[in-house]
Amino acid sequence: MDRTEPGRPPHHVLSVLVENRSGVLARVASLIARRGFNIFSLAVAPTDDPRFSRITLVVDVESSPLEQVTKQLDKLVHVVEITELDPRTSVERELLLCTVAADASVRGQVVDLVQIFDAKILSVGIDCLIVSLEGNPQKLDDFEDLLRAYGIVELQRTGRVALPKLEREASGLRAVKERAS
User: Fold this and answer.
1) Where does CATH 3.30.70.1150 sit in the chain?
2) Residue 70, pLDDT score
3) What is the pLDDT of residue 133?
4) pTM of this prediction?
5) Residue 94: what pLDDT?
6) Where in the chain is the domain with CATH 3.30.70.260?
7) Which residues of 63-87 are buried (b: 16+ CB within 10 A; e: fewer)?
8) Mean pLDDT per 10-residue section of the chain, whose length is 181 residues
């Protein structure tokens, strides 16, 4: 899927289900790097089944088609399934932690911004606050841009995690609607 069309992000989001074994993440990341793709974001954790982990990779599409990488990933012994996720048909989330300068003269403004974005204040210091925000990547980008005006002391983002959106219409409901017509 080419994401370079207008209005689409210039990257691919891959969800890779792998066996939860030592060295699997290193082999996957190494394969991506050897193919010349820049890893924009990488998140990995065990799934509900402890035998498997899910790796969410966000890679650029500037370098070459993704088909070759997915074919190579599929050949790795511990890779179970590879799914490319379209942001329009998936749910993406990321976590941002940020230490922002907030002395007494601007602290109220920063607190207002935190409330507007439904973020959380995790720690309060004399001249700084540590805030967190969970949401889609664009929301985090917007929040980060607004915090820059106050002075970002430290910032860490987790990288994206994503799953396909759920079906909104049950097949049984479709059958009832068809009979009613």
Assistant:
1) 91-163
2) 85
3) 98
4) 0.77
5) 96
6) 11-85
7) eeebeebbeebeebebbeebeebeb
8) 45 91 92 83 94 92 71 88 90 97 96 98 97 96 97 96 85 56 53
91-163 placed in CATH 3.80.10.10: no
Per-residue pLDDT at 60: 79
Q: Name residues whose C-beta falls within 8 Å of residue 68's C-beta, 6 or more positions apart in sequence.
A: 35
The DSSP code sequence of 20-72 is --TTHHHHHHHHHHHTT--EEEEEEEE-SSTTEEEEEEEEESSSS-SHHHHHH
Which ranges constitute the DSSP H helices of 35-170?
67-75, 107-116, 137-148
Q: Which 8-state DSSP code applies to residue 121?
A: E
Q: What is the DSSP letter of 166?
A: P
| Lookup: tokens for 112 | 């207002």
| 11-85 CATH fold | Alpha-Beta Plaits (3.30.70)
How many whole angstroms separate alpha carbon 11 and alpha carbon 92?
14
* CA angle in degrees (0–180, nearest 5) for 137-157-121: 95
Edge-first strand order for the sheet with 11-19 is 39-46, 52-60, 11-19, 79-85
